Amino acid sequence: MSNHKVVILGGQGAIGSLLGRLFTQSGCIVYRVDQRTQGERSLCCQLDILNPAAGSEAIFTEAKAVVFALPEAVAIQALPWVLSAVGDDVQIVSTCSVQAPFHSALSAAAPGQPFIGVNPMFSPSLSEQKRPVAVTLDNCHVNEHWIERVLTQAGMRISRMTPEEHDRVMAFCQALPHAAILIFGLVLAKSPLDIGTLATVAPPPMRTMLALLSRVLLNPMEVYWDVQYENPMAAEPRRELLHAIQQLDSIVQAGDQTEFGNNLRHIAQQLGEQLNISAADCQHIFSTLE
Q: Which ranges carry the Prephenate/arogenate dehydrogenase domain (predicted)?
């Protein structure tokens, strides 16, 4: 890994900055490419990758890997230009929150081009130590990839999956909880009650939901839009969420306590061993709320 040249498109963004730091720590030479510049940084190129200036493809000379730390649509649009400028052995790295569309575009344009997807399952504002990262590969049974070594050396926990598996998992790990949080926010925003009063008397579950909602609202909107819009597999859990709300309402309206209890027991059974693990997580969270 030492002295590998890595070009990061979108290198000034949150994910690009995180990966740039990790690659640098592993001994790689990192070139950051972005439309904007932030402060004085060496090996940083200001460039519109959707309208690149003549000769700008020189940034890829001797590159070992090119990281697309970009929104899905922009990454796919930029792909043909990048492929025209790199050799067929250069590693293409996608950080898209939805992996299958980019992977399909790459496979169609350059079937033999090396591919790996890297999706950190945490905000870049947090420490990467012991954090999960989803790694997508064409073949999950191959030996450890050199980029995986960069991630594990930084203390991250890797879960391998194919691009299609990744998007299915993300539909439930990202799109579903985000949708539930946003629905909570939409209902709260229409409430005639004073939010200050609600916050004053809010028990830990309400405070936790407010905290999750506030984090979403303070982060870039595009992140959450991509999770919902770009992943076609996200439609199913959203529909199931709406159905579950209607089901709960019907049970309560009917006064059917037995069915209510049956549903809770079914959910607990489905959680299995995760039930006690997550209950401990909840206790830890609630214990930090004063």
A: 4-282
Judged against a pLDDT cut of 70, whether residue 182 lies above it is answered with yes
How do residues 104-149 score in pLDDT, each as one tens digit?
999 999 999 999 999 999 988 889 999 999 999 999 999 999 999 9
Q: Is the pTM of this model over 0.85?
A: yes
Asked if 67 and 28 sit in the same domain, the reply is yes
Same domain membership, residue 224 and residue 132:
no
What is the torsional sign of CA 246, 221, 70, 143? negative
Instruction: Write the CA distances from 100 to 82, 97, 171, 219, integer angstroms.
Output: 19, 10, 12, 25
Q: Is the pLDDT of residue 274 over 70?
A: yes
User: With b meaning 16 or more CB within 10 Å and e meaning fewer, what string describes 225-235?
Assistant: ebbbebbebbe
Residue 272 identity (one-letter amino acid): G
DSSP-derived 3-state class of residue 106: helix
Q: Which residue has the tokens 């000769």?
A: 55
Question: What tokens does 24 get?
Answer: 């640098």
C-beta neighbour count of 79 within 10 angstroms: 22
> 221 and 99, same structural domain?
no
Residue type, 204: P
Q: Nearest to residue 110, comparing CAs of 145, 139, 79?
A: 79
The number of folded domains in the chain is: 2
